[in-house]
Design goal:
Strand order of the largest sheet: 1-2
Number of helices: 53
Length: 1366
């Protein structure tokens, strides 16, 4: 069998009928053969398909409709063939319905297709081809997209590369604007079969176009045209790409492609609409309308219909056929989808042409919702909102126009519209907007600013009160109009009239009424019906108080326009200003009738009329209630029309206040004031409320602020309110001043004069009633009363109608007369009171003067006493200074040779106390090398001088000893007190050395006063004997390491014998005899015969202090040891005895019970023997001094080396630490020595006591032997004279103590400060000794102690040999 033929088997035979498929017979013939031979169903389907290909649709339908009944179905796959026959016929009906333009016929086709698909579902429901066909049918119906999507997904899940399913899914995604997903499914379909139809390429091109990939879109459309040259969709796609490119050649090419598509399918609505759009820009509106009309009729797709209607509407719009344009715009909006906004934009413009701004705003709102950044829409919508009465809409208009100006700052129209909106709310911003528009015109367009913009700028300046700049802009605008009048005479002449009227308003504001009237009349000559000029002329006459002339001008305006609301309003205000409430009310009621109750100003004016009726004096409560209700009703009506009307709210507050609801009225006024602070009535009403609430201070402040803010302190009415507030508050004087001020402003106002007279009468009455009023006040009150009487008499006789009651003025005049009749009594009473007060004041002044004089005398007396005390103190101080000078008068003796250790004083240097920080002359911190060298030279010179003066000093000491011996012989036996005084710079707390009570009973020897002994660290003369002994023992312990201790003991023992033979007293020795070497601190020696109890803590403090002193003045101490050792030892023993005796009385300490008696005088025979012994001792001392000086030189060198090492060391802290550690070691060594010495003393206590007893007995024997030659009477006389001298000395001492007690406190403070300074300065010096030197000292001490023992034995033997008298 050939491929182009079909064999039909015959029933019950083996024969067949062969049919040529290309030349098929009629359908009825084939149908008969198929029925007769009972041919299988699949042959029916093959023949039907070939009939469809040949375009024989009737035969195709005939076969498919009869195959279900007549075809044989007794084979295996007969169900699939049945389903295929049903699906094929259904697809055919679907195609017919898609092409059908008649809706009824289309519905019939779709109904048949639906029935066939339903029958196929019963055979095989989930067949892929069946589901795909049914899904395409659902997609075509439009409302079953979700069902179609589910069926496509089911098929694609089983077979991903199903072409028809991918195409259907791509269409669904494309309609959902998922262009990327749609493109993916188109690509899958293309991969499944490369020879797909051109529609797939067309779909891909559309997806690329929507995704913005124009190059690939162009390639896809080109490929689709290659596959199908008659693809109108591809031709239209390419044409749109060319038309949108902007290139002229491509434009022509695009138009040709559209023409080609039109030639292929002249009924294609898309082609027709694009051609209509092309001819619209060519302004060939006839062709536009023809093509768009055919496109509208040739499609049932609403989107295409909407575009066709839009093309028709805008062609009629440009031809100014607004009714037809409105019809097609409206029809287009019905067909269009929400995203197609062009018809809404055109429809809004049609509504504007019909003055239907509300519907126009709705149309533009829809456009703005889809395209929120469209400047044209925002400008139009802003302009519409600006004309609305709703404040919210006006605010939205402002926001929209501000967005336009920010997005497109060079849009002149937007700036002008914005200025027009802001001119009513914010004049400054409106002025900025107009200036910006003018600047853009000057800079970008290079043209003169139009007169309209100049006029608007001048209007803003007028509102801001900048009249000079406003005048310049008006003149510039008029010049522009005159210059360009020939170009556009009609328009510019109209603008000139407006500018001239505004210029006249400016002159009126400048109070140049003549110029304003001339301009208004000039406008009326050219335009007699310019009604505003009549109204302004009437206002000028009204301001001049020419009421009749003003009324005539207003009536002239009414002749032009009988229903003009402004003219009737001005006439009504004239009646109200003259308090003609009835005529004024009628005028406003007429306005309300003509405006249908919409004129808020007239309604508010009627409410104010009823409110003013409430203020009229009446006693009819019913009428008051009626007036209140009517006023309240009108104010509420205004608020219903305009909820933000401040004047209506203020009126409601006034009605509430009249009703007595003060609190509610205050709340209303407060809210109005918060809403606007530029309303003077609210300020005044709030002040009235404060008066009613008796908050007078707040009311006065509110009146003053209102007067200052709104009227520049010049308003008679508010001054009267302020005067009333002061009057009610009780401040009559302030009231009088305010009324005088108002009288100066309005001297013709009799109401002010009445109030002033009333206040004067009250002031006078209060003054006269006050019995404490002075004469001047009473006289002034009488004058004011006379003045008030004259004013009231004048006011009571007024003939014209006044604002006050004439009868009340007469009554006040009579009351003033009655008060004046009592004036003489009040004047006399005030004069009497004034005389009494004057007398009292004179007495008070006199007493005050006496008290002042007395106070001055007392103060003068007190000052004189203080001066005398001060002079006395100065005199005492001078005496004290003179005594101190005598103390410090030293003999000019050569300085002794000092050891190299430490710094030596210069001859001309002052004497420093041990506690003073300035007493460290060796301190050379901060000196350079030259100064150090100079100091070294000076030290060497001083050493030489001291060596030379050594011999001289020895001679001086011998001379002093000789003088003392002579004085002792001449004077009587007894104790003499020391006359030594302490220098003000010393650290001693006492002024002189005071003997204790026990010492007065026995003549005890004392050592000469040394400058070192005046130190607070060495010995204090004013301290108790116990403390003296303790400090001396501390010094002894601190100096025990020195080699000179042993020698000092030997010398003391040798000199004791001499002093026993010649009892020379220390007190006879004058301070002037002490040389500079004697000023060194004396080293206390241990008393050999007495023991004192010493506190360990005090001994440690003494050790520390003495370490510091010994480091500085070691050379001086050692140089004086040999000369004064014996004297110190002897004085300390005596003082220790005194301390012990005093301690037995005060503290109960254990001391020996022996009492010293007066020593016997030394005989002349013993003197030469003692002198020989002294010479021998001096030789020994010189030898010892030489040994000492050698030791000192060694020590000085060692110490210098240490100082150099410390000065060269970089770390000063380490050196200080070393010094401290060495000091601690020394102190420990000293403590051990102290313990050893204490143990030795305890052992030798008994031997010491025996020795002291033997000494005392020997001295008694000597004294008795001397007194044996005298008679008993002489002895008694001597004892009596001693007692008298002791008593006189005790008196002198008490006087000295009282005289010097004042200076003790100052001395104590000085000593403390100097001790601190001394401690700080001593830290910088090194006090450590080498270990070798310490060993040498110990050896030398042992040797010297052995020698001392030998000398003691020899001395005791000599003492035993001396003659003793019993």
């Amino acid at each position: 069998m050939k491929s182009k033929s079909l064999e039909i088997p015959l029933r019950d035979t083996d024969e067949v009928i062969e049919l040529d498929l290309e030349q098929l017979p009629e359908g009825e013939e084939i149908l008969g053969i198929l029925r007769t031979e009972n041919v299988p169903l699949h042959i029916w389907l093959t023949l039907a398909k070939h009939y469809y290909k040949q375009g024989k649709m009737h035969d195709f339908v005939l076969l498919l409709e009869n195959c279900q009944k007549d075809a044989a179905t007794d084979y295996r796959e007969q169900e699939k063939d049945k389903m295929l026959a049903l699906d094929t016929l259904a697809a055919y009906y679907v195609r017919l319905g898609r092409k059908e333009k008649n809706r009824e016929t289309r519905k019939k086709h779709f109904a048949k297709a639906t029935s066939l698909y339903t029958q196929a579902d019963k055979i095989i429901m989930y067949d892929q081809n069946h589901l795909v066909g049914r899904a395409h049918f659902c997609l075509l119906e439009g409302d079953k997209t979700d069902q179609a999507d589910a069926q496509f997904n089911f098929v694609l899940a089983k077979l991903e590369k199903h072409i028809a399913a991918n195409m259907g899914k791509a269409c669904i995604l494309f309609n959902k604007k998922d262009f990327k997903g749609a493109l993916g499914h188109f690509k899958k379909a293309l991969k499944g079969n490369e020879n797909c139809p051109a529609s797939i390429r067309l779909g891909m091109g559309l997806c690329f176009y929507r995704l913005g990939n124009l190059e690939k879109a162009q390639l896809a459309f080109t490929r689709a045209l290659e596959l199908d040259t008659k693809s109108t969709g591809s031709l239209i796609g390419q044409a749109i790409l060319h038309l949108n490119s902007g290139d002229k050649e491509k434009l022509h090419k695009g138009v040709k492609l559209l023409s080609t598509a039109y030639g292929i399918d002249s009924a294609n609505s898309m082609t027709l609409n694009h051609l209509a759009n092309h001819f619209f820009f060519k302004k060939d509106y006839q062709k536009v309308q023809h093509l768009a009309q055919h496109a509208l009729q040739g499609t049932e797709v609403e989107f295409i219909q909407a575009e066709s209607c839009y093309q028709l509407a805008r062609s009629y719009h440009n031809q100014q056929k607004y009714d037809q344009a409105f019809q097609y715009y409206y029809q287009s909006t019905q067909f269009a989808s929400p995203s197609y906004v062009l018809p809404h934009f055109g429809l809004g413009q049609m509504y504007i042409a019909r003055d239907d701004n509300a519907n126009a705003a709705l149309c533009f709102e829809k456009v703005l919702k889809i395209q929120p950044s469209n400047n044209e829409t925002m400008k139009i919508l802003g302009s519409l909102y600006s004309q609305s009465d709703d404040s919210d809409k006006r605010d939205q208009a402002k926001v929209l126009l501000q967005k336009v100006t920010t997005q497109c700052p060079e849009d002149i129209e937007a700036w002008i519209e914005l200025g027009g909106i802001l001119q009513n709310s914010n004049v400054n911003e409106a002025l900025n907007a107009y200036n910006t528009a003018a600047q853009i015109i000057r800079d970008n367009i290079n043209e003169d600013v139009p007169p309209e913009i100049l006029n608007n700028i001048a209007s803003c300046l007028f509102q801001l009160g900048k009249y000079e700049e406003c005048l310049q802009h008006y003149e510039t605008a008029l010049d522009y109009c005159k210059r360009e009048l020939q170009n556009d005479e009609a328009y510019l002449s109209a603008i000139t009239v407006t500018i001239t009227y505004n210029l006249a308003r400016l002159y009126e504001a400048l109070h140049e009424f003549g110029k304003a009237e001339d301009l208004y009349k000039a406008v009326l000559k050219e335009h007699p019906n310019y009604l505003d000029c009549y109204l302004r002329l009437g206002c000028i006459a009204r301001d001049r108080e020419q009421i009749f002339e003003a009324s005539n001008w207003f009536k002239d305006a009414l002749q032009i326009n009988q229903d003009n609301a402004d003219a009737w309003t001005l006439i009504g205000n004239l009646h109200i200003s003259k308090q003609e409430w009835g005529p004024g009310q009628k005028k406003f009621e007429r306005i309300i009738k003509t405006t249908n109750d919409k004129d808020s100003y007239s309604i508010l004016a009627i409410g104010n009329v009823w409110l003013q009726m409430l203020y009229q004096p009446t006693r009819d409560r019913d009428k008051e209630q009626k007036y209140q209700e009517r006023a309240l009703a009108f104010f509420k009506q205004v608020l219903r029309q305009d909820p933000r009307n401040m004047f209506a709210a203020n009126g409601i507050g006034c009605v509430l206040a009249v009703k007595g609801h003060i609190r509610e009225a205050r709340d209303v006024f407060a809210q109005v004031r918060e809403a606007t602070a530029e309303m003077a009535d609210v300020w005044l009403n709030l002040a009235h409320i404060y008066i009613e609430q008796k908050q007078f201070v707040s009311a006065i402040q509110m009146y003053e602020n209102c007067l200052k803010k709104f009227y520049n302190h010049h308003n008679v009415e508010i001054l009267l309110y302020l005067a009333r507030a002061h009057f009610v508050y009780g401040k009559l004087e302030e009231t009088r001043k305010i009324l005088l001020r108002a009288r100066h402003m309005a001297p013709q106002d009799n109401l002010i004069l009445f109030n002033l007279s009333y206040v004067l009468r009250h002031l006078a009455t209060n003054t006269l009633r006050d019995e404490k009023s002075g004469l001047e006040d009473v006289v002034s009150a009488v004058r004011n009363l006379e003045l008030a009487q004259r004013f009231f008499n004048m006011l009571s006789k007024a003939t014209e109608k006044q604002k006050y009651d004439l009868n009340h003025a007469g009554a006040e005049a009579r009351q003033c007369t009655d008060l004046l009749s009592q004036a003489q009594y009040h004047v006399a009473r005030a004069r009497k009171l004034d005389d009494e007060q004057r007398a009292i004041r004179m007495q008070q002044e006199k007493a005050k003067q006496e008290m002042e004089n007395k106070r001055k005398e007392e103060s003068e007396k007190k000052r004189r006493v203080e001066d005398e005390k001060h002079q006395a103190m100065l005199a005492q101080r001078e005496v004290y200074r003179e005594k101190a000078k005598n103390i410090l008068m030293f003999t000019e003796e050569p300085e002794p040779v000092r050891a190299p250790k430490g710094r030596k004083k210069k001859d001309d240097e002052p004497i420093y106390s041990s506690g003073d920080a300035s007493s460290d002359p060796d301190k050379d911190d901060g000196l350079n090398e030259d100064e150090k060298a100079q100091k070294k030279k000076e030290k060497a010179e001083r050493r030489e001088k001291k060596k030379q003066s050594k011999d001289n000093k020895k001679k001086a000491r011998k001379e002093r000893e000789r003088k003392r011996l002579q004085q002792d012989r001449e004077e009587k036996a007894g104790k003499y007190t020391s006359k030594a005084f302490i220098d003000s710079d010393s650290d001693s707390d006492a002024d002189d050395a005071e003997p204790d009570a026990k010492a007065d009973k026995s003549p005890v020897k004392s050592t000469p006063v040394k400058s070192g002994m005046l130190d607070s660290d060495s010995s204090d003369l004013d301290e108790s004997p116990k403390k003296k002994a303790q400090t001396r023992k501390r010094k002894r312990f601190s100096d025990s390491e020195d080699d000179s201790d042993v020698r000092a003991e030997m010398e003391q023992q040798e000199k004791e014998e001499e002093k026993k033979q010649s009892p020379v007293k220390e007190d006879d020795r004058q301070i002037s005899d002490i040389s500079e070497d004697d000023a060194a601190p004396a080293e206390p020696a241990e008393p050999p015969k007495k023991k004192t109890i010493i506190d360990d803590s005090e001994s440690e403090e003494g050790e520390k202090e003495n370490d510091k002193e010994n480091d500085k003045e070691e050379t001086e101490e050692k140089s004086m040891e040999s000369d004064e050792g014996g004297e110190k030892l002897e004085s300390e023993t005596v003082e220790s005895q005194a301390v012990e005796e005093e301690g037995t009385e005060e503290e109960g300490m254990l001391v020996s019970e022996t009492v010293l008696e007066e020593p016997a005088p030394i005989s002349e025979e013993d003197v030469p023997a003692k002198e020989e012994e002294k010479k021998e001792e001096e030789k020994k001392e010189e030898e010892k001094k030489e040994e000492k000086e050698e030791d000192r030189s060694k020590k000085g060198k060692a110490e210098k080396k240490k100082k150099v090492e410390l000065s060269d060391s970089e770390d000063s802290d380490r050196a200080a630490k070393k010094q401290k550690s060495e000091k601690k070691k020394k102190s420990e060594e000293r403590k051990t020595d102290h313990k050893n010495t204490d143990s030795k003393k305890a052992g030798s206590k008994r031997s010491d006591s025996k020795k002291s007893d033997s000494k005392r007995s020997s001295s008694k024997k000597k004294h008795d032997s001397e007194l044996s030659s005298d008679t008993d009477d002489e002895v008694l006389e001597k004892r009596k004279s001693k007692k008298k001298s002791k008593a006189s000395e005790d008196k002198k001492k008490t006087k000295k103590k009282s005289h010097k007690s004042d200076s003790e406190s100052e001395a104590e403070s000085k000593t403390k400060s100097r001790k601190k300074k001394k401690k700080e300065s001593s830290l910088s010096l090194s006090s450590a000794n080498d270990s070798d030197d310490a060993k040498k000292k110990q050896k030398s001490k042992k040797k010297k102690s052995e020698k001392n023992k030998k000398t003691d034995k020899s001395k005791t033997s000599e003492k035993d040999k001396s003659p003793v008298k019993s």
